[in-house]
Amino acid sequence: MRPLHDFVKKMDSFFNESFKQMNSQFHLKSIWVDVEETDSDIIVKAELPGYKRDQIHIEIIGNRLRISVKGMDNEKYSNSKRQSFEQKEKVVTVPFIIPEEETSASFQDGILKIFIPKKNSNRKYIDIEE
């Protein structure tokens, strides 16, 4: 199963990098997320430059993690200034119920990191008979 996991991760990386470049060209706004898996945790990293800790909201809904940000967007043009309210969100799904008490998050230098422990995942693997 590992080769499939590696393939999916490479495809995710390809599309994330491609869309990041498109984002900078077309000034699109989205939350860019990278998901890593270790033996003990799933680590969700979200790039949120320009946001403050109090503008970020994290919600656990079963096996889904919802990251949302709200804030003001100030754009300056040559003769005027425009201000608008913006809201972004990203939902990440994991293959088990997220333990609320053990899940933790940190925010530093525009990077949000969420640590979801896998120890309480009741995942079972089934052998395929011949």
UniProtKB/TrEMBL annotation:
Gene3D superfamilies: 2.60.40.790
Signal peptide positions (record): none
CDD domains reported in the protein's UniProt record: ACD_sHsps-like (cd06464)
Cited InterPro entries: A-crystallin/Hsp20_dom, HSP20-like_chaperone, Small_HSP
SHSP domain mapped to chain residues: 22-130
One Pfam match: HSP20
Family, per entry: Belongs to the small heat shock protein (HSP20) family.
Protein name: SHSP domain-containing protein
Taxonomic classification: Bacteria, Bacillati, Bacillota, Bacilli, Bacillales
